[in-house]
Design brief:
alpha/beta, 3 domains, about 290 residues, 5-stranded mixed sheet
Length: about 290
């Protein structure tokens, strides 16, 4: 079942898929071709009518016509042995599709789940054993340098999730927002806020309300506040699209536009609740 953390992490990778390639290179030593375009592609691996072959996010390194490397990103918050077969199937299907190297990156906010996900996945196909690259709290860097946080705000937000109990991590993230375009800063703040523990959220809110935070002018605070409200509804819209996608429902362009342009928090929440158990768009939007 999708959750706020699950959907937020997916949004970070979908909004800047280069993050996956960077993590594989920098944290795991995987050879992912540098200086090549990186983009999100379809995550549907169904070869028969089913709902069990949708990866969270699939990323291609290289051009769409001639990719160099495939990356499957899965967000795993709980131990679920049924997912292991799915990961092996995703990797095999993407390899067959691309005939190129494929990496599976599993992001686990919980250390126990990370240890479970790191175990090799043995299949009934002779010789096929999948070992995923698992990004657990121990491998997520503590980003305490505001300059590094500004260069990679997605990684800084994930660092807040894993290490938000360290005030220096939260302070670096908030300081970095001064260097992020003012119309983007609210979105990154909302990402971090959704990923953070209650203790880290208190630090985030304390810094934002203080006079020492760089965005301190009345105009900037008003602009940031408006942006934050817009960021929250945009985050809801992204979560709604993710849930619909996970339900295996196709979203036409006009429906996506309706969702992304909606600024009514309550309406988006209503649609999101309906989407969790929906099998068609009519079940989500038919009553409106």
């Amino acid at each position: 079942m999708p959750s706020v953390v699950h959907d937020t992490l997916n949004s970070l990778f979908r909004n800047r898929p280069e993050l996956a390639a960077e993590l594989l290179r920098d944290r795991f030593g995987v050879h992912v071709p540098p200086d090549a375009p990186v983009h999100v592609t379809t995550s549907d691996f169904n070869d028969r009518p089913s709902r069990d072959s949708q990866a969270d996010t699939v990323i291609l390194v290289g051009s769409s016509r001639d990719p160099l490397h495939g990356i499957i990103v899965e967000i795993q918050q709980d131990v679920d042995d049924s997912k292991r077969r799915g990961l092996a199937r995703y990797a095999a299907a993407l390899w067959l599709r691309l005939d190129r190297p494929v990496s599976v990156l599993v992001v686990c906010p919980n250390p126990k789940v990370a240890a479970w996900a790191a175990e090799p996945i043995r299949t009934t196909l002779p010789g096929y054993v999948l070992s995923a690259e698992v990004l657990g709290p121990a491998l997520i860097p503590k980003v305490t340098d505001p300059a590094q946080a500004a260069d990679n705000p997605e990684l800084a937000a994930i660092s807040v999730m894993a290490h938000g109990r360290h005030r220096a991590v939260v302070t670096a993230f908030m300081t970095a927002l001064e260097k992020v375009p003012l119309d983007h800063a609210p979105h990154y703040y909302e990402y971090a806020h959704r990923l953070a523990s209650p203790a880290a959220r208190r630090i985030l809110e304390e810094i934002m309300s203080s006079t020492t935070w760089p965005v301190y002018s009345p105009f900037a605070r008003e602009h940031f506040g408006k942006g934050l409200a817009e960021g929250r509804t945009e985050g809801q819209a992204e979560s709604l699209l993710t849930v619909i996608h996970m339900r295996g429902i196709t979203v036409p362009g006009e429906v996506k536009e309706r969702i992304m342009s909606c600024r009514d928090h309550d309406q988006l929440d209503t649609w999101l609740q309906r989407a969790v158990g929906a099998t068609s768009l009519d079940e989500i939007f038919g009553a409106d």
